[in-house]
Design goal:
The complex is a heterodimer of chains A (369) and B (230). Chain A has 369 residues and is an alpha+beta fold. Chain A has helices at 37-45, 93-104, 114-121, 136-149, 166-182, 194-200, 218-223, 334-339, 363-368; strands at residues 2-10, 13-21, 26-30, 52-57, 60-64, 69-70, 78-81, 154-158, 187-191, 203-208, 211-217, 237-248, 253-258, 261-266, 275-281, 285-288, 299-310, 316-322, 327-332, 347-352. Chain A contains nine helices and 20 strands. In chain A, strand 4 (52-57) and strand 5 (60-64) form a beta hairpin. The radius of gyration of chain B is 20 Å and the shape is globular. In chain B, helix 1 (4-37) packs parallel to helix 5, helix 1 (4-37) packs antiparallel against helix 7 and helix 9 runs antiparallel to helix 10 (194-227). Classes of the chains: A alpha+beta (369), B mainly alpha (230).
Chain lengths: 369, 230
């Protein structure tokens, strides 16, 4: 577990944050700018000292102001990836990569091998180059590699895509989705981008003005109808994972199993059985109380109303449970709630246009942002 | 060409300036690092003290050195009693006087270079396990190298030209403390010494030009080294 609890002030800004994230997968700290995300990361890293607090990662107490324990930044064994890369300009790519490796190497084979990092990140050909001759995307790849090679127990990422153009964002985001799991290193990822949240998060901590608004497993937090920051956005929706059951490349489609139903989405690469992470935007979900016939919508899913969450803007977020368990979110008007007599427990049909489904989750929002 | 006495003045100048820079530069690096990177009580006082020679008349600086490092001064007395070393009227004393005048310029050049280094780069090094000394040697020093080289060049040039502080503290002893400007002044004070003064002035010019060319080459090398392009 990552147990974090800290109170700190930076100038006028007051921060009082506490969360408990699993020590596996990616924990995303999400919130608008000024929420205190980077401050939390700096506290976690040990670059800032809180007035009071306790920070524990696994079995190691990084900080406990009560007992006076404080492990120095150098000794926390973290890999920190910054928004601007921060490669050492006077060292080659190879020297940059080896900087942490040399200082952190223990006898015996490294847990994270150099060659594998080079392969996964695709930076083997850059070793002799200088940082200033790299593109933004290449620089960020090297920065990620440098952090990984320091054999970190925890990887910290502070908006690593923020300074990249769209094409590079796509590329690095896909890479990051495979890196965390690939190197079995838990990651704490800071972002204000919903796309990155949807693509990467296993666990979510929502922050605003120095406070935690919500926290929990990504699918629960994101799919709820009343989650602060997220539920009233026009791109609010549910996050689901569904295995591929068939590929239909000739019609540009992929079939997935969602609960006990099958759904069709625009083609995504992958072999049968692979899990695809989907983001189903609540505004794109249509509800019906009878199964419609003769309709262009490909995906008609049996569901039951779980909960209604009225929104401040007058619309209503309807949480749905699909046959077989997965949750969806649909945004409807109050008139629709009345006309269809939507109440918890009511059996309904959820209609999803296959082209409206965002898969892999977040990639469409990335393009729009 | 030059008489042996005139060559001596050239030699004294180079020795005095080289020694002043050799001793002063590392000290300037330490002070500049503290001023650029640390907040501590007395920081403003240290800053003012370091910069004082820049605004004081050099003669006053030389006089202050006499008071401190003279045989009866607190530091001078201690040096004499402990090591039997005297600075007043010696070549080392000339270096001290010239070095004190050059010191603020050297600190300034290095400090600007240090402040130009993104603290984020050093933070990144820290997160990769580099401790203070390691980080200073592997990151800060190489990145500040162009500024350090510039400081050495400026310091050397100032030392070559320093007059007031040197003559006040170390006097004008041929072969020992009489640098080129002091020798020129001495020649002008001597009836019929105008030819010598002119010759020495031309030599000063030549030394300055050679030093500047060497400095330019060194500076270019340092900048290239710091930015290391393929």
């Amino acid at each position: 577990m990552i147990d974090f609890e800290a109170r700190a002030s930076v100038g006028e800004f007051r921060l009082d944050v506490s969360f408990h994230a699993p020590e596996t997968g990616t924990t995303v700290l999400f919130g608008p700018s000024g929420a205190g995300k980077s401050t939390v990361l700096a506290l976690l890293a040990g670059a800032l000292r809180p007035e009071s607090g306790r920070i524990v990662v696994g079995n190691e107490v990084f900080l406990d102001t009560k007992s006076g324990t404080s492990v120095a930044l150098e000794d926390r064994h973290l890999g920190w990836v910054f928004q601007d890369g921060r490669l050492f300009p006077h060292l080659t790519v190879a020297q940059n990569l080896d900087y942490g490796l040399r200082r952190r190497a223990r006898p015996g084979p490294a847990r994270i091998e150099r060659q594998r990092v080079l392969d996964v990140l695709g930076i083997g050909a850059l070793l002799e180059r200088w940082p200033r001759d790299l593109s933004g995307g290449e620089r960020q790849r090297v920065a990620i590699g440098r952090a990984l090679l320091a054999q970190p127990r925890l990887l910290l990422m502070d908006e690593p895509l923020a300074s990249l153009d769209l094409a590079r964002k796509r590329e690095i985001l896909e890479l990051l989705a495979s890196v965390g799991a690939g190197f079995a290193t838990p990651t704490v990822y800071v972002t204000h981008s919903v796309a990155e949240l949807l693509r990467l998060a296993d666990h979510v901590v929502l922050l605003d003005r120095g406070r935690v608004l919500a926290e929990g497993p990504a699918r629960e937090v994101i799919g709820r109808g009343d989650t602060p920051l997220l539920a009233t956005r026009s791109d609010a929706g549910a996050l689901v994972e569904a295995p591929i059951v068939a590929q239909r490349p000739e019609r540009g489609a992929t079939l997935l199993r969602l609960g006990s139903d099958e759904i069709q989405i625009p083609h995504v690469a992958g072999e049968i059985g692979r899990l695809v992470r989907l983001h189903v935007i609540a505004n794109d979900v249509i509800l019906a109380t009878e199964r419609p016939r003769a309709i262009s919508v490909r995906n008609v899913l049996a569901a039951s109303v779980h909960r209604l969450a009225p929104r401040a803007d007058g619309a209503v977020n309807v949480e749905l449970t699909l046959a077989g368990g997965p949750r969806l979110l649909a945004t409807v008007t109050q008139e629709a709630v009345r006309d269809l007599a939507l109440t918890p427990g009511l059996a309904v049909f959820a209609l999803l246009k296959s082209v409206a489904i965002d898969a892999p989750a977040g990639m469409r929002l990335l393009e729009e942002s | 060409m030059l008489t042996s006495g005139e060559w001596q003045a050239v030699g004294v100048s180079l020795v005095v300036a080289t020694r002043a820079v050799a001793v002063g530069l590392p000290l300037a690096l330490v002070i500049a690092w503290f001023l650029a990177r640390r907040r501590f009580p007395g920081r403003t006082l240290l800053d003012a003290l370091v910069h004082a020679p820049l605004v004081l008349p050099p003669v006053v600086v030389g006089y202050a050195l006499l008071l401190l490092f003279g045989v009866r001064g607190p530091i001078g007395h201690w040096l004499d009693a402990t090591f039997g070393a005297r600075l007043v009227f010696t070549s080392a004393g000339a270096s001290l006087a010239a070095g004190v005048i050059a010191f603020p310029m050297m600190v300034r050049a290095i400090r600007i270079a240090l402040e130009g280094i993104d603290p984020g780069i050093e933070l990144a090094a820290r997160s990769l396990g580099a401790r203070t000394v390691d980080r200073f040697l592997s990151i800060t020093l190489p990145l500040a190298l162009p500024g350090i080289v510039a400081a050495a060049i400026v310091g050397f040039a100032v030392c070559l030209g320093e007059f007031g502080a040197v003559i006040t503290f170390a006097a004008s002893i041929p072969g020992e403390t009489q640098t080129l400007p002091l020798a020129i002044y001495a020649a002008l004070q001597t009836p019929g010494g105008e030819d010598t003064a002119l010759k020495l002035a031309l030599v000063s010019l030549a030394v300055a030009v050679v030093a500047l060319i060497a400095a330019e080459a060194l500076g270019r090398w340092a900048r290239r080294w710091a930015a290391r392009s393929p």
